Amino acid sequence: MRGVQFLEPLFEFSGACAGCGETPYLKLLSQLFGDRMLVANATGCSSIYGGNLPVTPWSTNHEGRGPAWSNSLFEDNAEFGLGLRLAADKHRALAASLLRALAPELGAALVESVLAAPQIQESQVRAQRARVAEARARLLPLAEHRAEARDLLSVLDHLVRRSVWIVGGDGWAYDIGFGGLDHVLAAGRDINVLVLDTEVYSNTGGQASKATPLGATAKFAAAGKRIARKDLALQAIAYGNVYVAQVAMGANPQQTLQAFREAEAYEGTSLILAYSHCIEHGFDLRYGMKQQDLAVASGYWPLFRYVPAMRRIGESPFRLDSPRPTIPFKAYAYNELRYRRLTASDPAAAEELLVQAQAAVTDKYRTYEDFSQLRDGPTPAAVTAAAKSWGLPGEVPLVPATPAR
C-alpha cells in the first residue's frame, strides 16, 4: 500500500492464525491513527489475539503514545464504545471550559487557537499537539497555586482529537451485538465502526452467522446456508447520514486506505465492512489476498463507499469502486472448502444453491450500479426494495431440505 509502509505500526506480533485476514486491517488502523486511538473491542478472535495478556500486540511509538484498548462483551461492545466517545467528549468540554477560564493567564490568542483549530488531517493534529504543549508549559507555574490549573492539566490532552473505533467480527456486528450497533449508528456521534467480516463465528469454531453467505456450509448450516447474508451496509446506508464503506485489501488496497481515512475524518458515525479471509473458509491462507481479489472480481464482494458529504457538492453519495464482475461466482467460491463440501454430500442441492447464489450476486451488483447513478444516493425505500430481492426469508424460493437418510 503506497506510502503506508513508512508509517510505524502500533499493532504487531499478534497471536492470530498464520495468514489471518483480520490483522492487516488492524495494523493499517494503528499506522494511521494509533497514537490517538481509543478501541472498544468485542469479544472474538480480535479480542483474543489483541489482548493475550500479559502481553499485547498493541504498542506505543517513540513518544510513548499508542492505542488505548479495552475488550467488552459480544452483547454490549457498541454501547461500550459509545461510552468511550461520550467520555472523550465530556473530557474535551471540561478542558475547553477550564481553558477559557484561564485565558487571562495563558493568553487569549493561544486559547482561541487551541479551541478553534481544525483537526481533520494528521498535519493539523500534529499542530494541535504543539499548541497543547505550549499551553502545558504555561500552565505548570500556575498549577502550584491554582486548583483550576491543576484540573486543566489532568484533562489537557483531550483537546487533541480522539479517534474512537468500535472493532469486532460479524458474529458481534450482525448477530449478538446488532441491537447495540444499530443504536450507535442512529446516535450520530463521531464514532468509527470496523467489522472484520469472516462470515462465520471464527473464534468459537465456525458456526454460521447472519453474515454467512448463501450456499456456504458451516456449523448449524451443514446442508448449506439457504438464505442470503444480511446486508449490514445497506441497513446503515438507510439512515442517510452514516459513512459506509465495503473494502477488501487484497483486491484494492488504495480503496481500503481511502475508506479508512475518509471514515475517520467524517464528522459523524462511520461503518467499514472489511472482507477477512479465515482458516474456517477451508483454503491455503497463503493465497488469502488473491482470494479476496477473486471475491471482488466475481461481484460477490463489491467495493463501494457511501459518503454523505458528497451531497454538499451535488454529487451522488454512493461511489461504486469495483468494476462489473469478470469471473463467475463459482470461480471464486469453489476455491474454498466451505462451498465445495456440499458437492460431496448433496450434489443436487449444491448445484441449486450455486445457481441461486450467482443470481443473487448479479442482482445485487446491478442494484449497486443503479444506486451509484442516483443523484441523492439510495433512498430508504430503494434500500428496502433491494434487500427484499436478495434472499431475505420468504422472499426467494429456497432449496427443499434434503430428506434424512
**How many whole angstroms does the radius of gyration measure?**
23 Å
What is the tally of beta strands? Answer: 8
Helix-strand makeup class: alpha/beta
State the shape.
elongated
CATH architecture of the largest domain: 3-Layer(aba) Sandwich
User: Assembly state here?
Assistant: single chain
| CATH H-level superfamily title of the largest domain | Thiamin diphosphate (ThDP)-binding fold, Pyr/PP domains
* Number of helices, counting only DSSP H or I runs of 4 residues or more: 16
Could you say what the CATH topology of the largest domain is called?
Answer: Rossmann fold
SSE string, helices as H and strands as E: HEHEHHHHHEHHEHEHEHEEHHHH
How many discrete structural domains? 2
Q: Mind telling me the CATH class of the largest domain?
A: Alpha Beta
> Sheet with the most strands?
8 strands, mixed
Spans of at least 5 consecutive residues whose pLDDT stays below 50 are: 392-405
Rounded mean pLDDT score = 92
Helix coverage percent: 40-55%
Strand content is: 5-15%
Structure in words:
The protein is an alpha/beta fold. The protein has two domains: 4-75 and 162-388, 3-Layer(aba) Sandwich (Rossmann fold); 82-159. It has helices at 23-33, 45-50, 77-101, 103-106, 108-116, 122-143, 147-155, 170-176, 178-187, 232-237, 253-265, 288-297, 329-333, 337-345, 347-373, 380-388, and strands spanning 37-42, 68-72, 163-169, 192-197, 243-247, 270-275, 304-306, 318-320. It has an eight-stranded mixed beta sheet, sandwiched between helices. Helix 3 (77-101) runs antiparallel to helix 7 (147-155). The longest helix is centred in the last third of the chain and has 27 residues, at 347-373. The protein is elongated and about 80 Å long. 46% of the residues are buried. The model is unreliable at 392-405 (pLDDT under 50).
